[in-house]
Design goal:
This protein is of the alpha/beta class. The protein has two domains: 345 residues, Alpha-Beta Barrel (TIM Barrel); 76 residues, Immunoglobulin-like. 29% of the residues lie in helices and 16% in strands. The protein has an eight-stranded parallel β-sheet, with helices on one face. Strands 14-15-16-20-18 form a five-stranded antiparallel β-sheet. Helix 8 packs parallel to helix 9. It binds 1-deoxynojirimycin. 1-deoxynojirimycin (NOJ) binds next to loops. It is found in: Cytoplasm. Keywords: Cytoplasm, Glycosidase, Hydrolase. InterPro entries: GH, GH13_cat_dom, Glyco_hydro_b, Malt_amylase-like_C, O16G_dom_2. It holds the Pfam family Malt_amylase_C. Belongs to the glycosyl hydrolase 13 family.
């Protein structure tokens, strides 16, 4: 397999609003990130992915961009960005920006022009359709509840918004739109940034004719997914983007691609395809949903999680590349979701790190994950900030589909605000995130869960992450080895091998809060495999491993 720096990298994701506030306004900013570069370098990560930092009215916290070539006021200035980029490079950290071009803000000048009249030169930058007898053009639902179409009285037509009303979808069929996007990408790349994470990039091509979607039970809307995901021209557009822009720079690219199969992902990431390096897929994030519905408190199913990961690991091996993540700014905290954030908090956070980082693909660490940050308790919907949760709460409770107290329980389990509470730097006021009032409440667990305390403790989750990240650098098998699942039906243990020529790794992770025995493949005992890492004190290798609650071990045999 070809060696590439982005295959050997670990990415650290920053949600700038919640990372570090340098000026006391309660909102994280670029100078805050600059002040933490030593810390970030010390983790051993290679790339920083910054969630959107561009000008935005913040209807969806920056995923609604009103100017692609300027910085959000709260975050600082372009001069701050230039300094961040330069200093990050001095710290051997690359910068990957979020590219949000499925939609803009309705306050972007293109949309302001577009909505002003039917013959405006920007009209065709967006997707406008006539209504049907006073109703929207079709029954598609939006990702953030309600119809995906918004009526605009100025021209008596509807525009498409797959997300909020303030996020109108761009019309990628228009060559001018594509040229604008390539231009702004070059503008940032010429500044020296190192790559893009592309927001919902598999939604940029919609099926023409805008047919109605299958009705959604209990809702007046229909399912838009078959008509907007992985649409008819998406690969043509990405290949064009690659030809026009990406091929001219040595960069890392990851496309967010919900509802994507292994076959689709091979098309996006195939080594011979000239599209993207890797995609973020979502199948493993569905192991605790209810027939695709996120709002439930179903527990994750380990056998299903292993099946999904393994399908992707073997499906892309040698042909494309995986991204590896268990949480991000849209997902709850992984230790609360897949581990135990109570009694075995420390053990389970470490175990999850091992389980994920030893797979094939580029791992993503979401801010705070490296100290085991936990889900928050939101007592009522007024305490939440996230537009998805707020709209879903309104929609599901108002039509009686979900009782308000159940919906709050689901939001506490799955809501995006769980990941967006301020980063916990120390045990001082507001966890050291701000001297002002934080824009979202600080998780009370900060008195125990914080960076400063974990720096002091050699056995902390933080110091464990440093070791796990280091393994990827020291053992090329972690990057390039193939993957084989062991004991697929075991519902408490996730065990797999990595194989590179004669060399092997055995990864064993106990997902249960109780001790477990596991017989391991004989060759690891016969060849006196070396223990590379474990979250419990070292024990001797035996035919049957006696695993402690949430124990993880990695054994290595040389070729
Ligand atoms: C995916 C982003 O990760 C999410 O935060 C955002 O709300 C939507 N795309 C819309 O841009």
């Amino acid at each position: 397999m070809d060696k590439k720096w982005w295959k050997e990298s670990v990415v650290y994701q920053i949600y700038p609003r919640s990372f570090c506030d340098s000026n006391g306004d309660g909102i994280g900013d670029l100078r805050g990130i600059i002040s933490k570069l030593d810390y970030l370098e010390s983790l051993g990560v290679d790339v920083l992915w910054l969630c959107p930092i561009y000008k935005s009215p913040n209807d969806d916290n920056g995923y609604d961009i009103s100017d692609y070539r300027d910085i959000m006021d709260e975050f600082g200035t372009l001069a701050d960005f230039d300094e961040l980029l330069e200093k990050a490079h001095e710290h051997h950290l690359k910068i990957m920006l979020d590219l949000v071009v499925n939609h803009t803000s309705d306050e972007h000048k293109w949309f302001i022009e577009s909505r002003s009249s039917k013959d405006n030169p920007y009209r065709d930058y967006y997707i406008w359709q006539e209504g049907k007898n006073g109703n929207p053009p079709n029954n598609w639902d939006s990702n953030f509840s309600g119809s995906a179409w918004k009526y605009d009285s100025r021209t008596d037509m509807y525009y498409l918004h797959l997300f909020s009303e303030k996020q109108p979808d761009l019309n990628w069929r228009n060559t001018k739109v594509r040229a604008e996007v390539y231009d702004l990408m070059k503008w940032w790349l010429d500044k020296g940034i190192d790559g893009f994470r592309m927001d919902v990039i598999n939604m940029i091509s919609k099926v023409e004719g805008y047919p109605d979607g299958e009705p959604i039970p209990g809702s007046k809307y229909g399912n838009r997914l078959p008509y907007v995901m992985n649409g008819p021209h998406v690969h043509e557009y990405l290949q064009e983007m690659n030809r026009e822009v990406l091929s001219k720079y040595d960069v890392i690219t990851v496309g967010e691609a919900p509802c994507t199969s292994v076959e689709d992902a091979i098309k996006y990431t195939g080594f011979d395809r000239q599209e993207l390096n890797m995609v973020f897929t979502f199948e493993h994030m569905d192991v605790d949903s209810d027939n695709g519905l996120k709002w439930t408190d179903k527990k994750p199913d380990l056998v299903e999680l292993k099946r999904v990961f393994s399908k992707w690991q073997t499906g892309l091996n040698g042909v494309g590349w995986n991204s590896l993540y268990l949480n991000n700014h849209d997902q709850p905290r992984m230790v609360s979701r897949f581990g135990d954030d109570g009694k075995y908090w420390k053990e389970s956070a470490k175990m999850l790190a091992v389980c994920l980082h030893m797979m094939q693909g580029t791992p993503y660490v979401y801010q705070g994950e490296e100290i085991g940050m936990k889900n928050m308790v939101f007592h009522n919907i007024e305490e939440c900030n996230d537009i998805e949760a707020i709209n879903a709460y309104k929609e599901y409770t108002s039509d009686g589909r979900i009782a308000p107290e159940d919906m709050m329980r689901y939001i506490n389990r799955k809501g995006r605000d769980n990941a967006r509470t301020p980063m916990q730097w120390n045990a001082e006021k507001n966890a050291g995130f701000t001297t002002g009032t934080p824009w979202l409440k600080t998780n009370p667990c900060y008195t125990e869960v914080n960076v400063a305390a974990q720096e002091e403790d050699p056995d902390s989750i933080l110091n464990f992450y440093r070791k796990v990240i280091r393994l990827r650098k020291d053992y090329p098998i972690v990057v390039y080895g193939s993957y084989e699942l062991l004991y697929p039906e075991h519902d408490k243990i996730y065990a797999y091998e990595r194989i590179l020529g004669q060399e092997k790794l055995l990864i064993v992770c106990n997902f249960a809060g109780e001790a477990m025995d596991l017989e391991i493949p004989a060759e690891f005992v016969e060849k006196s495999a070396k223990l590379l890492i474990s979250n419990y004190p070292e024990t001797k290798i035996t035919d049957t491993l006696h695993l402690q609650p949430y124990e993880a071990r990695v054994y290595h045999i040389e070729g």
